[in-house]
Amino acid sequence: MRSSFARVGLVATALVGAGVCFALASSARPDSANGALALLASPSSAAPTPRSWWDAYEGDAKTAKLAESNEHAFALLAGKAAVVGPEGRDVIDGAVILVKNGKIEAIGPRASTAIPAGYEVIDRSDKWVTPGLVDLHCHIAGKSFLVNDINDMVYLTNPELRASSAVEPRNPNLERAIAGGVTSVLFIPGSGTNMGGQGILLKTGLEHFEEMRIRDPGSLKLAQAGNPERWAINPGRSFMNWNTRNTFARGLAHAKLRKQDPKLARNIQWDVFGPLLDKKTQVSTHTQIFQVVLTTLTMVRVGFGLDVYIDHGEWFGSKLAGMAQDIGVGAIIGPREIDRFTPGFSIDTDGQIQGIAAQYQKGGHKDIGFNTDSPVVPEEELQLQAAQACRYGFDGKNMDALRGLTIVPAKTAGISDRVGCLAPGRDADVLVIAGDPADPRCGVDMVYVNGKREYDTSTERRRW
Question: pTM of the entire structure?
Answer without folding.
Answer: 0.85
